[in-house]
């Protein structure tokens, strides 16, 4: 039922997490996610965890940063993916600095000067519990008390248009729809889509993202390992995950060369996570999600950070725009890494005046694939985009802008 290979990897992820020594406040829980590379040559090349993160929070829409210096979405799955992006791009730099005698065990350069995973190398994701959104709706419903179930059954919501995302768990009986974070109706509204939706998006556009597409062909997950699903719910939850992650996108067409609909295998693990909600309930009945997020990038000069409200813990508001205090997973930090790597790869340098948004929009093939997914009358046409307003920045940190209230 549970493969030895998967169990070994999950234990390795949790061992790495434990080594980072994150102390959760009493009465709190968190979610753990990681991305790893596995080689078919497992006798000589051990699995490599390239990114790991915890987290359950995201910024309300009135706290989004204008200069890219704060991470919008700090859910573990999203942070783990951003860790993987950073590792992939930094691996190019390591290959360049190592000279002709050093070669990456994981990536290889193609004739078009972009990289891909080596033959026999594939990427897998581990999540300590079901991702929020479409994949977990029926699972959560099985644990509702009768009073809450009756309340939800009596709630009346206006019909949901096909190009509109549902807020949190509103319209909870609808499956296959886009949902925003967080699930609770009494929480501040955000522009972040659920982790189920984001995983589905990665299964079309790839893990590498828009900036990463300048250096990499699309990279897709081969497997997703999920914890905390009881054995008697495996069949139901697997069906829901397959629908949420790729089943609802099977009609997508027109994707440019190299892009596809990835269909990662969904597997479960019986290995528990020490800081999960269920584990923490044994020690404290009053549970709330932890405000802090831990991020770790393998082989990086500054491998781990703790974030709170999207910023590095302990950074005062007056210092948040200084380069040294940027979270390494923030948009502006990854933009800086992107420009540095273009120079390393001797790629034509763009104008210094080009903004993060403009550079992303210039990735033609990626944007074509994105339009096949998010464009008008496309499967995810209801996707809420943050857009130029929050991405109109360069790599300078001296502009001192504040976050904005977008309700005005």
How does this structure look, described?
The protein is an alpha+beta fold and 408 residues long. It is built from 11 helices and 14 strands. The chain has helices spanning 4-19, 76-97, 137-141, 146-154, 195-205, 209-212, 234-245, 277-280, 331-344, 356-361, 364-374, and strands at residues 28-29, 32-39, 48-54, 56-58, 73-75, 107-109, 115-117, 121-127, 221-227, 265-269, 288-289, 292-297, 304-308, 311-312. A hairpin with a 2-residue loop joins β13 (304-308) and β14. α2 runs parallel beside α9 (331-344). The N and C termini lie far apart (53 Å).
Widest sheet: strand ordering: 10-9-8-2-3-12-13-14
Spans of 5+ residues with little confidence (pLDDT < 50)? 397-408
Secondary-structure content class: alpha+beta
Q: Provide the succession of SSEs.
A: HEEEEEHEEEHHHHEHEHEEEEHHH
Q: Report the helical percentage.
A: 25-40%
Number of strands: 14
How many strands, what sense, and barrel or not for the largest sheet? Answer: 8 strands, mixed
Multimeric state: single chain
Computed CA radius of gyration, to the nearest angstrom: 21 Å
Number of helices: 11
Distance between the termini: 53 Å
Shape: globular
Q: Please indicate the percent range of residues in DSSP E strands (runs of 2 or more).
A: 15-25%
Mean pLDDT: 89
């Amino acid at each position: 039922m549970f493969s030895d290979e998967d169990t070994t990897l999950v234990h390795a992820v949790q061992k790495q997490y434990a080594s980072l020594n994150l102390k959760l406040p009493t009465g709190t829980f968190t979610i753990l996610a990681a991305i790893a590379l596995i080689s078919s040559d497992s006798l000589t090349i051990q699995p490599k965890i390239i990114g790991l993160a915890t987290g359950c929070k995201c910024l309300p829409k009135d706290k989004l940063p204008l200069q890219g210096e704060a991470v919008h979405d700090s859910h573990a799955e999203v942070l783990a993916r951003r860790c993987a992006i950073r590792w992939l791009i930094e691996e190019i730099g390591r290959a360049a600095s190592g000279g002709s005698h050093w070669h990456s065990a994981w990536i290889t350069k193609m004739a078009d000067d972009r990289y891909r995973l080596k033959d026999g190398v594939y990427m897998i994701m581990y999540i300590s519990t079901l991702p929020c959104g479409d994949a977990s709706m029926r699972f959560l419903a099985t644990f509702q008390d009768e009073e809450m179930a009756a309340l939800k059954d009596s709630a009346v919501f206006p019909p949901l248009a096909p190009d509109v995302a549902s807020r949190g768990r509103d319209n909870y009986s609808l499956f296959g729809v886009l949902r925003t974070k967080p699930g609770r109706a009494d929480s501040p509204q955000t522009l972040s889509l659920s982790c189920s939706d984001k995983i589905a998006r990665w299964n079309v556009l790839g893990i590498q993202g828009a900036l990463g597409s300048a250096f990499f062909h699309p990279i897709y997950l081969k497997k997703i390992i999920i914890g905390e699903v009881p054995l008697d719910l495996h069949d139901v939850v697997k069906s829901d995950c397959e629908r949420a992650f790729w089943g609802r996108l099977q009609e997508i067409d027109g994707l440019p060369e190299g892009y596809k609909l990835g269909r990662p295998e969904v597997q479960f693990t019986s290995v528990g996570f020490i800081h999960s909600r269920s584990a923490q309930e044994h020690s404290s009945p009053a549970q709330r999600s932890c405000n802090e997020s831990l991020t770790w990038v393998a082989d990086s000069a500054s491998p781990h950070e703790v974030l709170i409200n999207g910023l590095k813990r302990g950074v005062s508001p007056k210092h948040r725009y200084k380069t040294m205090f940027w979270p390494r997973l923030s948009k502006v930090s990854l933009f800086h890494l992107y420009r540095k790597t273009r120079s390393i790869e001797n790629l034509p340098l763009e104008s210094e005046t080009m903004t993060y948004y403009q550079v992303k929009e210039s990735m033609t093939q990626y944007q074509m694939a994105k339009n096949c997914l998010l464009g008008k009358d496309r499967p995810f046409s209801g996707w809420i985009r943050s857009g130029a307003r929050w991405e109109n920045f360069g790599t300078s940190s001296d502009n001192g802008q504040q976050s904005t209230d977008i309700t005005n």
